[in-house]
From TrEMBL:
Keyword Membrane assigned: yes
Domain Methylamine utilisation protein MauE: 8-79
Record's keyword annotation contains Transmembrane: yes
UniProt topology in membrane: Multi-pass membrane protein
Cellular localisation: Membrane
Lineage: Bacteria, Bacillati, Actinomycetota, Actinomycetes, Micrococcales
Organism: Brachybacterium faecium (strain ATCC 43885 / DSM 4810 / JCM 11609 / LMG 19847 / NBRC 14762 / NCIMB 9860 / 6-10)
Protein name according to UniProt: Predicted membrane protein
Keywords per UniProt: Membrane, Transmembrane, Transmembrane helix
Spans through the membrane: 44-61, 68-88
Length: 129
């Protein structure tokens, strides 16, 4: 199995799990929706969950994997403000919670890089999709 395929599988499981959690436990995600966004947080929670599930599906299918990699990178960029909101909100929390919140910030860059790797690996082997 190629590195790009393994990475796509990892990202697909990560996004599929996160998307499912957005649907079954939305209250946690509601708390990190930036307050500057208009409308109720729950709408953003469900929308991001649906997007995560859709991107996971794109990553799972070899024919759509390049698009899935690009979509995953865009999604990771789009949800970064929620990670910033969490870090801000948890700045006075217990050390473990702070470490989780602050650790998510650089991790987002790693996830973006991995998603772009999937998109490039797919396009090198099979051309444009």
């Amino acid at each position: 199995m190629s590195r790009g395929r393994r990475t796509a599988g990892f990202l697909g499981v990560l996004l599929g799990g996160a998307g499912a959690l957005h649907m079954v436990r939305p209250e946690h995600f509601d708390t990190i929706v930036p307050t500057a966004l208009p409308g109720p947080a729950r709408g953003y929670t469900y929308a991001s969950g649906v997007a995560e599930l859709a991107v996971a599906a794109l990553l799972a299918v070899p024919r759509t994997r390049r698009l899935g990699g690009l979509a995953a990178a865009a999604l990771f960029v789009a949800v970064f403000p929620a990670n910033v909101q969490m870090a801000y909100d948890w700045r006075g929390a217990r050390p473990r919670k702070r470490a989780i919140a602050y650790g998510r910030l650089p991790l987002q860059g790693v996830l973006i890089a991995q998603a772009l790797h999937v998109a490039r690996a797919r396009s090198r082997r099979h051309g444009p999709v």
